[in-house]
Structure formats: structure tokens, C-alpha cells
């Protein structure tokens, strides 16, 4: 009898790749110490190489760090990066130079929490196929803290307006999980903690049906910026029935025809230095190897 496959398990929806989180930083040197030296990520060598912006590669995703008033994401970013002990050693190595900032790090059962010099929180996980698919280095999710009673309506907004599948998860608080690519999600977790003011940070994803969501957002007066032929933005997530505001975060929405879609990214191996250099080991792999192929 032919093998039966669950074809729906491979459906992505309209979003096919989550690329970057954009957070302003006031000091490029301190940002380098945290993201490059401490976390072990890689500054993009081709784009944004001056002292006013910095793109940090994390597998096929990025952190964009333009200079400006510090921005703090209301929630945290999930990061898959191999080697907990090496990560802890790197973070410890920059602690002295980051004294007097919000920098901190701590071990937890399944992750290391690292806090940037301005208060942004990252949860750093070892690769785990059951949780993050084949990601060996990358950003599997961004989680936002949202007001109580909003996740059900958020779950309705994304499929209807953006064509992005969403589901409710229960556990440690109610969470709306929105699919933004293979093994990538935006998570919205309900909390009773007071909400800080939105400060302008943004997230970016690529979608295939580019004009359909645009028309729906435009009809509700939700388009916040027209960037170019390949890109637009919106900020507000609303209740589809009442129009009630639910949450604000800028979404940079790009078409799959965008010139930078799936641009190859350099990812260095942070274990390599001038004392232990070995040919062929300069780069880190962003996906699990063929021995772990799930097919």
C-alpha cells in the first residue's frame, strides 16, 4: 500500500521567510561587543558597513541595528545557536566592557537568556529539530507581550488580512502563534504586565501574495508607509469586527520579487581565532546536516 503523507504539514501560508528584527542602538561599538563578540554572530560584510548602521547575520535572518535613540522590543527574540558553554564564555568575556549598561546573561534549563546593553532580551537555544526544525543558526521566533484578551483576535487578523496561518497555544499563558516561514513564527503572549509605549522597532517578512494583503490593509487604512515597488509597511493589528486596536509593531512587508530576497549571508564560525585557525572551518552552517535529514 502506498505510504500516506500529511501534505498539509508542509503548508506555509503566505509568508515564506522571516528575515530581520530592526532595533535602534545609540552606540555601534557596544552593539558589536554584544552581538558579534558576545553572541558570536557575524556583521554583514557587504551592506551597512559604516558607523551609522550595522546588519548582524544570524543564519538566514538578521538583526538590523541603525544608530539612534535606543529601542526595546516588548518581549524577546528567540535565537538558535550551537554550543552553550562557548556562548557563556563569550558573554562572560564582554561583561567587563559592558559594565554600566543593561547587559546581563543567565542560564536556564533549556536556554541562555542574554540581555543587550539597552535591555533587549534574547533567548538562546541549542539546535533542536523537534522545536525549531533544521535551524542550526537563526531566528525561529520573535515573541511579543500583548494585553490580556487580545490573542484570539490576533489569531483572526493574520489569516484574514495577511494570509498567514495562526493558532492559539495554551501553556504558560495564552499565545497566538503566526507562521512567518518554515519553522519561524511571530508569537503574541498575553500578559497582565503594564505595556510600555511602542518605540518604532520593526520586524520584516517576505510574502508571496503581495498585493492581496496590501488591498485589505489599505481598505482599513492600515498602510503606514509606502517604501517602493517591492515593499510596504503597516503597524497596527486590529480586531476585524470592531476595529479595536490590539497591538502595534511595524511590519516591513516585502514581495518575493524583492531584489534582496534570500540574499546569501556570511556566517562565521565564532570558535575560530588566529591561534586555533583551521582551513575549511571559517563558516558556521545555518542548517542541520544530511545525517539529520527528516525525510
TrEMBL record:
Single GO molecular-function term? metal ion binding
Q: Which domain of life is it from?
A: Bacteria
Looking up InterPro entries in the UniProt record yields:
Glyas_Bleomycin-R_OHBP_Dase, Glyoxalase_1_CS
Q: Does the keyword Metal-binding apply?
A: yes
Has keyword Metal-binding?
A: yes
Q: Which UniProt keywords apply?
A: Metal-binding
Question: Which protein are we looking at?
Answer: VOC domain-containing protein
Amino acid at each position: 500500500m502506498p505510504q500516506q503523507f500529511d501534505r498539509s504539514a508542509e503548508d506555509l501560508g503566505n509568508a515564506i521567510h522571516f528575515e530581520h528584527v530592526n532595533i535602534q542602538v545609540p552606540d555601534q561599538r557596544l552593539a558589536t561587543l554584544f552581538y558579534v563578540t558576545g553572541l558570536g554572530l557575524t556583521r554583514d560584510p557587504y551592506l551597512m558597513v559604516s558607523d551609522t548602521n550595522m546588519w548582524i547575520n544570524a543564519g538566514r535572518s538578521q538583526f538590523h541595528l541603525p544608530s539612534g535613540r535606543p529601542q526595546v522590543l516588548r518581549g524577546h527574540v528567540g535565537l538558535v545557536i550551537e554550543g552553550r558553554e562557548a556562548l557563556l564564555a563569550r558573554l562572560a568575556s564582554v561583561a567587563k566592557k559592558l559594565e554600566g549598561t543593561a547587559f546581563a546573561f543567565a542560564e536556564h534549563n533549556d536556554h541562555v537568556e542574554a540581555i543587550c546593553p539597552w535591555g533587549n532580551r534574547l533567548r538562546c537555544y541549542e539546535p533542536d529539530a523537534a522545536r525549531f526544525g533544521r535551524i542550526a543558526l537563526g531566528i525561529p521566533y520573535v515573541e511579543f507581550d500583548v494585553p490580556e484578551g487580545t490573542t484570539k483576535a490576533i489569531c483572526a487578523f493574520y489569516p484574514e488580512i495577511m494570509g498567514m496561518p495562526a493558532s492559539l497555544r495554551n501553556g504558560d499563558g495564552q499565545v497566538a502563534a503566526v507562521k512567518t516561514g518554515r519553522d519561524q513564527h511571530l508569537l503574541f503572549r498575553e500578559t497582565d504586565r503594564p505595556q510600555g509605549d511602542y518605540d518604532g522597532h520593526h520586524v520584516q517578512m517576505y510574502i508571496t501574495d503581495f498585493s492581496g494583503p496590501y488591498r485589505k490593509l489599505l481598505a482599513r487604512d492600515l498602510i503606514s508607509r509606502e517604501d517602493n515597488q517591492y515593499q510596504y509597511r503597516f503597524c497596527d493589528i486590529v480586531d476585524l469586527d470592531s476595529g479595536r486596536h490590539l497591538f502595534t509593531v511595524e511590519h516591513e512587508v516585502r514581495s518575493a520579487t524583492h531584489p534582496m530576497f534570500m540574499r546569501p549571508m556570511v556566517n562565521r564560525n565564532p570558535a575560530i581565532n588566529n591561534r586555533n585557525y583551521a582551513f575549511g572551518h571559517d563558516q558556521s552552517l545555518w542548517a542541520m546536516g544530511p545525517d539529520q535529514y527528516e525525510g
